[in-house]
Amino acid sequence: MHIARRSILGALAGTAALTAAGAPAAASGFAASRANGPTAASTTSGRPAAATTPPATASEAAAAALARLLPRHHGQVTFRTVPPRNGTDAFRVSGEEGAILVEGSTPAVQLTGFHWYLRHVAHAHFSWTGAQTDLPDRLPGVRTPLVRASNVTHRFVLNDTNDGYTGPYQGWAYWERELDVLALHGFNEVLVYAGADAVYHRTFIEHGYSDAEVRRWVPGPAHQPWWLLQNMSDFGGPVSRGLLDRRTALAQKIVRRLRELGMTPVLPGYFGTVPPGFPGREPGARVIPQGDWGGFARPDWLDPRTAAFGRVARTFYKVQQELYGATSMYKMDLLHEGGKPGDVPVGDAARAVEKALRAAHPGATWVILGWQDNPRREIIQAVDRSRMLILDGISDHYPNVTDREADWSGTPYAFGSIWNFGGHTALGANTRDWADLYERWRTKDGSALKGIALMPEAADNNPAALALFSDLPWTEGRVGLADWFRQWPHYRYGAADPQAVRAWDVLRRTAYGTTRADGWSEPADGLFGARPDLAVTRAASWSPKQLRYDAKEFDKALPHLLAVAPALRRSSAYRYDLLDVTRQTVSNRARLLLPRVKTAYDARDRSRFRDLTRQWLDWMTLLEQTVATDERHLLGRWIADARAWGSSAAERDRLEYDAVSLLTTWGPRDSANRGKLHDYANREWSGLVGGLYRLRWKTYFDELDAALAAGRKPKAIDWFALEDRWTRRHPGYSAKPTGDIVRIARKVANKL
């Protein structure tokens, strides 16, 4: 693979040299240098013909995307499709002022090339959080053509949990832009869980269940990812026929657009999840009860060795193909997070699951998550490893992960990161690990590293992490972090600015300077969102117990950001970053203040206790004001999105509860308390901070104060009862942002 990549880069560089010497724009030379490679419809890279688009349509697809993104400038850009060579995606960008030529192997790769140009020549960019598109009327020319080839085949994106934690009720307007942004960042494989509910619905109606029975079994959209992982069912439902139809239509638009862009939709495969009572509906069926997950009863698992499994799998893949077409990659996590094989040999089960996949889609790749003990060694040993891709979810998590070739017997894998769990708004990622491990693991002898896998549990956060991680496949050699973070604010805000560089250097050394040495891949979440306790160290049960960097050092970023030149403060990118740094600065106050509150309480110093708790609530007020300035930080927006999918008042209420409960109790009492799922998806959003979170801490502080006054022990508070009551009957919240983030950020900076 390295030899092939050097060859294509040499060919592209030769074309670049001709252009630089004054030769005509070398599209023909670029294509000719690769004329012996496969056609655009071939599949040496493991992607099927169905995932690519004929050249004429491909150019139109990239042009249409650019028209959506840059309506004033798109006419100045010409896209041209050239075939990949030996499975290597590549792009080349050249041209004069106002006439830019982008050549690439797919529409998505062409957009990646244009975005590379946009960042490094025009000093602008797009992200899933904020953009900077203040461009001159005529796009600047390219002095030296930009030439890049991907150093891996697979560039996978989105976590199984994404549809729950990012936006289960997002519509096509959101997804259209999201797919454009993912293409701009170089991804070519996108997990699509939307619409899977309709596949299961039709499948099990064909196997003896009524329409109503299946719809009761299917959870609400916010909770469906965990049903698709075989962790739970029912909660947040039942889903209506109308909702199923609308979600099907959305999923069809998503997969259609992915194919237009030359990207591969990764669809869920079938590995045996069945509704209750399945043996009574299907002759010869044998199920293995799966026990408990987080306080939920897991759905039964159909023994894959049985003829009944084969029949259900055939129906599943037939229905799925009728609705969404075939693809080349199917995601299945067999026995995920504590699944129980019972008396079924795991290797035999894996062979049967693979056999069913191959019967429906002979050339498909089985995609599986590398997480905890998944995939089990018995699975790896039983299947065709050359047609499996493992998405390593802990590449940057645990320091004892050092040899994936030995761990997975040479199975191809993607270097992955899960820097976010549950949609926490915490800022940061282990970028030092990415820079160190990716290139070292990829280039070592016998490496099985064939891709990247960007898998935060919720997307649309940490834009610097998105950009840096997605740069890995397009960068020659090891990424230099100091240089990368020095360049980032240049195109993030539109021009060089020394204060912006200083701010991002602080962030590089603090929030983005952590490593897996401490056994974590995510930043610590905020204590304002925790169930109150004077000794609490985290809000979610599986989050870090302490900040992974120096909070006082982090504070230095905010004054620098506020000092950025006024002309660079107009973009949504700057406003988002200012909000994020302000929010994190305020959030960190809780970890500094809570020990002092505890000391005052333990000393029974009521005056000091009341003063400190007032300070705590004042900081919460500032946090609420901070996040209220951005639409993406509004609980009201989340609720409005959910309610918009309902066709009756009852359904709208049900969908709202599905969406809001995911952020608060997560599930019923047993799951929230015994399963420890409460606040797993905590986030610093307007409506949560000023609503539930403030209510909890005010209730708690009032009780402690009353206990001090009366000289008694504080009474126990039933937190689930309070949370569930608020989740079901909370005040109304606005879906529109309010306030000025610059003014609020200055107020925060003055209080530090």
From TrEMBL:
Domain (Alpha-N-acetylglucosaminidase C-terminal) ranges: 484-751
Region ranges (Disordered): 33-57
**What keywords tag this UniProt record?**
Glycosidase, Hydrolase, Signal
Gene3D superfamilies from the UniProt entry: Chitobiase/beta-hexosaminidase domain 2-like, Glycosidases, N-acetyl-b-d-glucoasminidase
Residue ranges of domain Alpha-N-acetylglucosaminidase tim-barrel in the record: 155-475
The EC number(s) this enzyme carries? 3.2.1.50
The chain positions of domain Alpha-N-acetylglucosaminidase N-terminal read: 61-140
What would be an example GO MF term here? alpha-N-acetylglucosaminidase activity
Could you tell me which InterPro entries the record lists for this protein? Hex-like_dom2, NAGLU, NAGLU_C, NAGLU_N, NAGLU_tim-barrel, TAT_signal
| Signal sequence, start to end | 1-25
What is the official name of this protein in its record?
Answer: Alpha-N-acetylglucosaminidase
- Please tell me the species this chain comes from: Streptomyces syringium
Which taxonomic lineage is given here? Bacteria, Bacillati, Actinomycetota, Actinomycetes, Kitasatosporales
